[in-house]
Every structure is written in structure tokens, then in C-alpha cells.
């Protein structure tokens, strides 16, 4: 039975299509389940009845999924965000075209054939905009609004103009050392209340479904998805008693009891009502029909099945998509820098001005300051010198920050925006920001030619109160040479990672001769080379840590950054928290720690990525880099979390993707809006599902670390934990002695700005290979840190091959004795 297009829910469909169970058999449906996406294709499709063996269901006609085919070749130009296409177009404008673009606007009739092709790719395939009245303040928004909607014909769209202009923003400082942020004028700051403003509606298909020319989001007929649950199994032939009214959760509980398999529905829809007409149906058919009603399927996690959106996991899909899109975007951003350079040589960009009716413009004192303020965030001016309108904006009650806002200073700057002008001189609100105005006016200062400055000197470690060389080897001959090598570069200790007593003894004996104490490096979860793959910890992508690390380090951005700083990390894998190898491995390390004449034990990497303490503060690491590296997605932990919270962690999302993946429409028919903060990383009360997952991983790690420490007779030194996803390369780690039953310290700020406990070490990792730029960066970086605080340094060189170790040491370090 086909849907009536006016039916908005299965309940409405059932009311308008009477069901006769005596002739058609039982029927099951979710009476209040609305279509979860607003696409026209979905809305027009509506609902229909579908046969599922011994019963029928009322289900959506179509389903919308996010399922990119990465075998398609991306088109970097097609995937450029509109603002980068506009930037490219701007780089081709003549001086007179710039004048037009910055005043009335420029359109197809004023462009060359090549420029027209670019501009047509900027224009949306469907041009809609809405016009409404400006309200007085933020408190006036939220209720029903009066607005008109306009859709342009193709002929009208051909006369749409593009306008480039600038707006002033205020950089602000947050009190209590809260950092730097910015505020911009709201709609009511720039326009008189009661006046009309128009905004383009993102309704074009190319904005909603494709990324870099690859179709990512698809609408297809609603057919049964692949499932880990075999609906046809004879184990599911048992009769299912159909209650007249129940819920998705209750249906799954009844099925679990009947087939003796635990089935858990995702929390997003577990409480939705279910109506049944008829008395019984085959259990396998009920489960299949329920999944079709939700456009979902069943995934197996350990011994539990979860009724969810797909087999892979929507969190996994979005993590893959975000990294893929981000990597391509980095390539596009490189090109945009060239276009800014071309624009900076064309005097036409100086026609860029403020909108004629914009009240937020600078006075002479502000202009004088702005002319000398090249980079955002490094200077301020007295707020008393602001215009009255901007001063009022700085003191507005509509400014919402996590820390008190300082109102005595500010930093004004100009940003370049672009917008469309529709026929009838209807200027729409800005589409997006192109760049900082200084990217044009001070391009040379932003991209200085590198002067032949004096190279930073090699580090003299013997000026410090102590220093340790960290290395890994199972070779006794190499280990016996390491103390002498360390001493020659000014190190006072050797920290050696090994699992062989003979190798450790060789290093200790050589250390006695050289006067270099040796400590054992113990990593609780690091896997050996011969470790079975099924014992290894996994990321949300299903990768081991080394696989995820290779993925990240192979990105264009990281490969480029390696010219400036060391990002070639040591590749290692980690054992899962329930690995059968752990206890034997820990006994081995505990025995090595009791070796005679050993100076002590240092526990490193006790908290692998993903197991960090939950963070309540801003995450600065790009999510595209952090999310693929987070471990903890073992079957054991996933199942434990799923049973407790009715969500599989591979279905949890990084909420920052909603901005990074724009304008892609991020809703699917099974889960609706994927940017539901309850399933993403946010600090809220009660905590989100993602916060609960972070907490569970942290607690699991903390419990295992306590068990690990029980294998050691003497308290070891321990590397500090990090906050979730804070993996900034400039924020190195700290190692300090473990005291009593106190938990491991957490690195929640830049360690160089705080007083460390006695006998603590800064921990600096060295990647490999080292470019010239990375070498100079490391020298400069370590010199600055040593100057700030004379604290012992531990340098991790485990990424460096043995045959290159001496060379790398000579590149970075020297000693007074060597002179």
C-alpha cells in the first residue's frame, strides 16, 4: 500500500489506510515516528506498508544515509568551499572589476568567459532567500517570525551580483587569564530594528549531499540493510506475542527473552511507541520489520546486538569522512595562499570598504592602531578610545563567555566578507568570511622572506640539574654502548626500554663504568612485534594505533608541517585492557625492575590516547587529527558501555564536525540530526553520552594502572596524564615520582608555566626523520623551555633508528666536556 503524501507519521498513515488483519495478517508501526530529515525527496516519499514475512510494517518509503564511496576520485576545485572559489575569482579581477565588486557588486555581464565559469560554480543551483524584520535584541528572538521567501528563476539568478566588503570585529581579552577571543556585531547592532534583512537559504543539492565532487549523502529506497542478526535463522522462528502498544525497547527486551540473545536499541529511539494489530508473528520477522521502520539494522558487539543505524557505526563513518575532507581541504588552503598573494599586488583590493549603512566603523584612533596591528591576538588598545557604538557592543549583556570579559582593552580589526545581491538591489547577509583584511594589506609581513638568521645553538644538557636519554633496544651489544654515547652528549642518565634481562644487565654494567645510572622504561600496554592482532587496542576506525598514526602522518598537512617541526612519531601498538598477554608481560617487567644495580623504573605511556581524564575546557587539537587516534574501542569496553547506556561508542560523534563539514547536511533517516549534543563531546549537566564514554575509559585505565603498579616493589616514576585530546606538540609531557596512593598527576596546562614537584623531568619526544626545519625548531624549542625553568630534561629518542642515533644526537646536543 503506497503512502499518501499528506501523512506525516505512520499513525496518520494508519488512520487513513484502514488495516484488515483477518485478510492481511498482523501489522506493526511506530505511530509517532516522523521522518528524520527535511529533504524534499524524503518528505515526498512519505510512508508505505511493506511485507516482512509473517507481518507487515508501516515504514518510510525512502531512507537517507551517509555512505561515501571513496573509490570515486575527488575533484579538489569542485570541493572548494564557496569562499575559496570567491577568493580565486577575486585573484583574477582587474582594478576596475574590483571597484565594481566593492560598490554595486559584479555579475556575469562584467566578467570574462573564464571568470563567468568560476562565478557560475559559485552560484547555487537553487537560489532561495528569506526576508524578515530586525528585532531589538537577542531576547526578542526565538518566537514566531514574519518573513517572506523568494525563489529566483534561472533568468533572475543570472543577474545576481557578488559584492565584497569588510566588517570590523573586536578582539577581546578574558579575565582570570582566560585567553583571547572576539566579538562581532549582531544583526541589531548593524541594522535598525524594524528594517528588513535577507538571508540566502542553503537549499541547493550541491550544498547538502556532496563533498569535493563525491556524493556523500544519499537517498535510496528503504530496503532491509545488511545485518549481523540473521533474520532467517531457525532460532528466530519462535512466535512473538504482539502487544497492542509498547515501545522499541520493550519489543527488543521481549525478543531477547524469546531467542536468548541480548538485543539493545539505540537510546535515540529506544523509547518510541510501537503499535501492533494482530496477536502473533514470527520473532525474526518482527525484528526485521522494526529495523525497517527505523531504517536501521542490528550490529553485533561481543555477545550483544544493538539496533542502530548501520553495521559500521555512524561515528566511524563521520570520523573517516571528516579526516578525508580535512586532508583535501588542506591542499585547497595551500592554493588559497597563492591567491591572497596575487590579490595583494593588485591595488584594486583597496576599494574594499564598509557597507554604507554599517554603524560599526572605526574612528581615527582605531585606524591608527589597526594600521600597526599586523597579527590578531598580540596587541590591544584602550577601550576608552573606541567609538560609542563599539564601546556599547563591548559592554553588551549579549556577550556570553566562560570567563569574565575585560572591558578596559580591545583589539579592533577588519575581516573581508562577501555576499550576493539579488535583482532589485536586495543585498543579502554575508555568506562567509574570506580572510583577515591584513592578508591583503600586509601580505608581505604575513609571509616574510626567511632571513639567514643565526641558527639556534645545540643544547648543552650538562647545564641542567639532570638529563636522561630514553631509548629502546633488545640488543645487548647496542645497550652496552648507550651509556657512553649518552655521557658524551651531556646526559646524566639512561632510561632503557627492553624486555630482555641480558640487554638490561649489559646497559647497567656499562653505566657503572661510565658513571651513568640506568633506569628501566616500562610501558604497561605497549605491544611487542609478535603480539596477535586480536589482542590489540583499537580506535573508532577499527585501526591499531600504529595504523591510525600512519594515516595521520601521511596527511598532506602533517607532511608539510614536518618541514617546520618534528611530527614523525614513534610507531607503537597497544594491548587492549583485557588482553590475555598483559599479566605475563607485567610480571616480566616487574622482574626486570628488580635487577641488581638498576637505578629505578620509569612508567611511560601509561595513559594511551583516548584514556585521558575527561576535559572540561576547550580542545585545541583539530578533531580530524585527534579522533582517529583515540584508543579504547575494544569489544569488551564497547559492550560494557552499550549495555549500561544503550549506545555503542562507534555511534558517538565529534560535535565540531558540524562546523568543519559545512555545508553538508548532517542528518540521516535513522538518527535524524547527527549534531545532537547529547551524543557528542560537550560539558553539560547531566553529562552527554560521549562524556560518559570518556569517563568510562579513564576509569578503566586508572584501574588497570593500579594493578600494573602492584607488580613493582618500589614506586616508579610515572608520565603524567593528559586532558582529553590535548596532544599539542608544543606541550610536552612531565615525568615525576609516584607518591603513595595518590593518582597520577594530570597535565592540564602548559607545564612550563607551573612549578613541578621535586625530581620531576620535562619529557621531550624527538621524531624521525628530522628535516632541517624540524632540527632548528627543536633546538629553539628546548632552549626556550630550559631558559624558562632549569628543570631536568628527558629526551625520548626511541623513534630514531640505531644507526642514526649518534647523528641525531650530534645535531641537537653538545656538552661542555666535548668542547
Protein architecture, described:
The chain has 819 residues and is an alpha/beta fold. It contains 27 helices and 37 strands. A hairpin with a 2-residue loop joins strand 10 (210-211) and strand 11 (214-215).
Query: Strand count, sense and closure of the main sheet?
Result: 8 strands, mixed, barrel
Structural class: alpha/beta
Estimated helix fraction:
25-40%
- Spatial ordering of strands, largest sheet: 25-26-27-28-31-33-35-36
Short description:
The protein has 819 residues and is an alpha/beta fold. Helix 18 links the parallel strand 26 and strand 27 (518-522).
Compile the SSE list and pairings.
Elements: H1 10-16, H2 21-24, E1 27-29, H3 40-45, E2 47-52, E3 55-60, E4 62-66, H4 82-91, H5 95-101, H6 113-122, E5 128-133, E6 147-151, H7 154-157, E7 161-174, E8 179-184, H8 187-190, E9 196-201, H9 205-208, E10 210-211, E11 214-215, E12 217-221, E13 239-241, E14 245-247, H10 248-259, E15 262-265, E16 273-277, E17 280-282, H11 283-293, E18 297-301, E19 304-308, H12 314-344, H13 364-372, E20 381-382, H14 388-394, E21 409-422, E22 426-427, E23 432-436, H15 438-441, H16 443-446, E24 459-460, E25 467-472, H17 476-488, E26 493-497, H18 501-514, E27 518-522, H19 545-553, H20 556-561, H21 582-593, E28 600-603, H22 623-626, H23 635-645, H24 657-660, E29 667-668, E30 672-673, H25 689-709, E31 717-719, E32 721-722, E33 733-737, E34 746-747, E35 761-765, H26 772-788, E36 793-796, H27 805-812, E37 813-814
Parallel strand pairs: 1-3, 15-19, 24-37, 25-26, 25-36, 26-27, 27-28, 28-31, 32-34, 35-36
Antiparallel strand pairs: 1-16, 2-3, 4-12, 5-6, 5-9, 7-8, 7-21, 10-11, 13-17, 14-16, 18-19, 20-21, 21-22, 21-23, 29-30, 31-33, 33-35
